[in-house]
Specification:
The complex is a heterodimer.
Chain A (H helix, E strand, L loop, with lengths): L7 H13 L4 E4 L4 H14 L7 E6 L9 H14 L5 E6 L3 E6 L4 E7 L2 E5 L2
Antiparallel strand pairs in A: 1-3, 2-3, 4-5, 5-6
Helix pairs in contact in A: 1-2
Chain B lengths: L1 H19 L3 E5 L6 H12 L18 E10 L2 E9 L9 H5 L5 H21 L5 E7 L7 H12 L4 E6 L8 H7 L5 E3 L8 H11 L2
Parallel strand pairs in B: 1-3, 1-4, 4-5, 5-6
Antiparallel strand pairs in B: 2-3
Classes of the chains: A alpha+beta, B alpha/beta.
């Protein structure tokens, strides 16, 4: 689903509508930092006894301090060309996703299944 | 033309006001990182009184708390500010979690409702801050989106940040993990509860809040 052309408010509303339908949203790229806080604030407004909130995680390569010059140039070019479309973002309902564990190299999605926990993929 | 003139006047008034206003030092972070414990420690050290109540149950602070005109004198320098303790920022709040700590259902639902409002207030107050201490629990995984989002927003607003790795008294504490997660920030390990390493904390605070 294309949401890139939508403005921030519409994008956030679209994501939250999908998540409230118990869907896990996978976005190409990442939200802007103010959109992330807006999404959290909107989520808080929507929380009730059924909707517990969201889990969100952004996976993107970030330049390390000891990176060689060539890699830094490549990173700068990619940033210029792709901007916020670099990496990906996972957003899902907290009643389905128990936890998203992330470190710079991998993401782990821990799913809630009734009272038991199920680990799905790295 | 009138619009432009109005904008210039408004900016001028804002700047005049800005010069007179007291610096706002915010304490931000996820729930249960020890924000209020640190706020209490600062207030005890420099005002002789506590700021708020602390608890092991998450979302104990659900409203913005402000202590005005704190003056820290450290190594011949002085720093004056209003301290703003904020509710923990989270992406989910489940009232059933509060039931596990022995609360009744109504009490748990009320706490959850207040906690959601608290998160919204914390976010709204980001724009008001002149500098921020981000308090993280050093015994927990720092690679969470909430931590990244808080720091990303502060960076986007060009607000000076000091990252505090709290709870270094715990066996599982790992300051290095926080340092490697956020290498662009100075990370100071402390125990707000026991007052460990506060000298280094105040040194770093003076460096960040110039």
């Amino acid at each position: 689903m294309e949401i890139q052309h939508l403005n921030s408010i519409k994008r956030i509303n679209k994501i939250l509508t999908l998540v409230k339908q118990n869907k896990i949203v996978l976005l190409e790229g990442k939200l802007k930092s103010h959109e992330e806080t807006e999404l959290i604030a909107k989520t808080m407004e929507e929380i009730d006894s059924k909707f517990k909130g969201i889990e969100i995680s952004v996976m993107h390569s970030s330049i390390k301090e000891n990176t060689i010059l060539w890699d830094k140039i490549k990173e700068a070019v990619l940033n210029f060309l792709l901007g916020d479309r670099k990496g990906f973002t996972i957003i899902g309902p907290a009643n389905i996703i128990k936890e998203i564990k992330q470190d710079p190299e991998k993401i782990q999605l821990l799913l809630e299944e009734a009272s038991s926990k199920k680990k799905k993929g790295d | 033309m009138v619009g432009i003139f109005k904008k210039i006047l408004s900016k001028l008034f804002k700047n005049i006001f800005k010069k007179k206003k007291q610096l706002k030092l915010g304490i931000y972070g996820p729930p249960n990182g020890g924000k209020t414990t640190l706020a209490n420690k600062i207030c005890e050290d420099w005002l002789g009184e506590e700021m708020g109540t602390v608890s092991n149950i998450a979302h104990e602070t659900r409203e913005i708390q402000i202590k005005e005109e704190i003056s820290i004198k450290h190594k011949g320098k002085e720093l004056k500010f209003n301290l703003v303790d904020t509710p923990g920022i989270a992406t989910k709040i489940d009232y059933e979690e509060f039931l596990k700590s022995g609360m009744k259902e109504n009490e748990a639902k009320t706490r959850a409702k207040e906690a959601t409002k608290g998160v919204i207030d914390s976010i709204k107050w980001l724009d008001e801050m002149d500098a921020v201490i981000v308090v993280l629990d050093s015994s927990k995984d720092p690679y969470t989106q909430v931590n990244i989002t808080i720091l990303g927003n502060l960076e986007a607003r060009s607000i000076p940040v000091l990252v505090v790795a709290n709870k270094i008294d715990l066996k599982k504490a790992d300051i290095k993990k926080i340092q490697s997660a956020f290498p662009q920030y100075e990370v100071i390990g402390i125990s707000a509860k026991f007052g460990n390493n506060l000298e280094d904390f105040y040194d770093a605070l003076f460096k960040v809040v110039k």
